[in-house]
Design goal:
The structure is a homodimer of 382-residue chains. The first copy, chain A, has 382 residues and is α/β, with parallel strands linked by helices. Chain A has 2 domains: 138 residues, Peroxisomal Thiolase, Chain A, domain 1, CATH 3.40.47; 226 residues, 3-Layer(aba) Sandwich (Peroxisomal Thiolase, Chain A, domain 1).
Chain lengths: 382, 382
């Protein structure tokens, strides 16, 4: 198995990108990733995307983006794992290079949600749940998060305002990310006053669906220095799944896939959670941020919010999270988020994180699909 | 890079499977593939599917099928490349095992088209074209095939009835396949009398959309004998893409991706076309069968139909095609077809093809996406 490194990154601004189409966004990110390296060819392109068919009447997306990015002849597919689709594309790109079959592979994550109205988009997002037992019954992703959050608050005696730090951290960090959708810091008071989306999920507990694309270019570590001045090594790549429907899980408040994929990643990299300098986690909802931290060994059960309040996850804390705004403030262009996370870890490891730069040599990114039934974890090293 | 073999196959009956849901079909195939081998665990599952979101409101399909197949914790994604989605899943499963990251990987292809009405399904199938320049203008897959076929007939002075052998061969072979949707032989006269679907594409020039699922279980060749009595080695796995929209291609009658991926496969396997004992090709339309044979070196430009008439591609000919009925008679459950092709080659190489058994040691399967913008080719060896 070959060691794999990231030699190029690309990202578009996140938001309501009315002026750019699905293909425009993806091509922008892919071309930026190519320009960011000195690679002269691309052997394969894996495009992480969840809803191009439902919202834009476009499947066969991998080949479309390869075509419009000028990658003539390259292998190209679309990969889907709900919100974790982009991370799945990175994972498959890693397999392609690790196997020795490809030398240069691009993973791109893209979502264009504003081509459909909000109701259609929100309904389609729920296709990441079990259609027959959850989605078709009318449940949405925010309402699923509401069920989890209510149970969490009950089980661990956590109040709604206790979860404020996750949104506060994300918005504080997003303020300095030029690509972020939301660039205004918020206070705990503002968090508390926000309207409800799906009680107890308030507006600041839910990341915004939006448009965006990000891409990374991978190659074998042994030649990475020839194609990039600061290659970033993939120390671990791991994935796991759980029961899809929440009612099928023994303990809905324990994200088993997140735990399993993180454990697999720690084993591969030979590191423990406390050795990581940052953790880009999947804060599609603040409850998922808390559950991720607990599943991955950064907090005891029911203790994530308390640690967050103590500043452990701040930019200057022990394990900074969401250092460029997370899904909450950078925005959550569904399938693209998993690749944005990797791009942001690379920015930190290269020293290109601007005002949010931390001292970092080892960083982790974890992307979740739906309510956590898919989890994909990468550990990167400068 | 590790050598990879197929140790288990599974397939459902193809047709209008009103009594089985999307998940039922996929689980049936996955469980059958597991039962067909002695593997005791599955590390990853890649599900090839094109339209689960559009037709069944279900994404996150990889994890759903892993969950319902009892693969607790396994890595799982959906892969999409239009009609070639199933073959793409096989290709990624190959990468997973070749890389050394996984030992046992299942690739499943599934499509459930009868959950939506025919108009919706046909419109969604066109999402495999370029939405902005082709699909959204109202063009469908049959009408795209009609444009190609008309041009082919003009360019090479081929009459409609000259293409009859492709449908005749497929239906003759499908008659002996217990899983096939259509099990009645047809004559050239019946072919000629059939109504038009999209002139000059007649009813027997177009494979039927339907329901079905197939699966293969892969492991390293070095241990394959421990888990199967007749493992089949993957001698080559290759993929390529072309411009997506037909109007972007220099020569619409030359399937460049099919040519490229076949050439890559021949190079990997160190074989020439004439050394292959059978070729499961992508006859979603008879024109695509002809163009595939020409792109892959089995016939000169414009000569495929003539060779077919001479019996070259019959079951007892030099290079049998569609030995279990092809897409035309076995049926074309969109994303599943690419895996059915692999399963059928394995049946031939194992000597399990029943009345259609040929003497075969080396077989090829090639799946095309849309009008051929994606091509994935596998060469298998007994």
């Amino acid at each position: 198995m070959r060691d794999v490194s990231i030699i190029g990154i690309g990202q578009t601004d996140v938001g309501e990108r009315w002026e750019r189409s699905l293909r425009d966004l993806a091509v922008d990110a892919v071309v930026a990733a190519m320009k960011d390296s000195h690679a002269e060819r691309v052997d394969a392109l894996y495009v992480g995307n969840m809803l191009s068919g439902e919202l834009t009447a476009q499947e066969h997306l991998g080949t479309l983006i390869a075509d419009w990015s000028g990658l003539g002849g390259a292998e190209a597919y679309k990969v889907e794992a709900a919100d974790a689709s982009g991370a799945a594309a990175v994972r498959l790109a890693y397999l392609g290079v690790a196997s020795g079959i490809h030398d240069f592979v691009i993973a791109c994550g893209v979502e264009k949600t504003t081509d459909a109205d909000a109701e259609t988009t929100n309904a389609a997002w729920s296709y990441g749940t079990d259609a027959e037992y959850e989605g078709n019954q009318g449940i949405t992703m925010p309402s699923m998060a509401g069920l989890l959050m209510r149970r969490y608050m009950h089980e661990f005696s956590v109040a709604h305002e206790d979860l404020a730090p996750f949104a506060v951290i994300a918005h504080a960090n997003g303020a300095n990310n030029p690509h972020a959708m939301f660039r205004s810091p918020i206070s705990a008071a503002v968090y508390a006053k926000a309207g409800m989306v799906a009680d107890p999920v308030g507006m600041f507990d839910a990341a915004p669906l939006c448009d965006g694309a990000a891409a990374v270019l991978l190659c074998p570590t042994e030649v990475a220095n020839r194609f990039a001045s600061r290659p970033v090594r993939i120390r671990a790549s791991a994935a796991a799944s759980d029961r899809l429907a929440i009612h099928s899980r023994n303990d809905p408040l324990f994200l088993r896939a997140a735990h399993l994929s993180a454990e697999r990643a720690y084993m591969q990299a030979g590191v423990a959670p406390h050795e990581l300098d940052l953790f880009e986690l999947h804060d599609a909802f603040s409850i998922l941020a808390a559950l991720s931290l607990e599943a991955c060994g950064f907090a005891g059960r029911g203790k994530a919010a308390e640690l967050a309040k103590q500043g452990v996850f701040d930019l200057q804390g022990k394990t900074p999270i969401c250092t460029m705004g997370g899904l909450k403030a950078r925005g959550h262009p569904i399938a693209a988020s998993g690749v944005y996370q990797i791009v942001e870890v690379v920015q930190q490891l290269r020293g290109e994180a601007g005002a949010n730069q931390i001292e970092a040599h080892l960083g982790m990114a974890q992307s979740l699909g739906g309510t956590g039934a898919t989890a994909i974890t990468h550990i990167l090293e400068a």
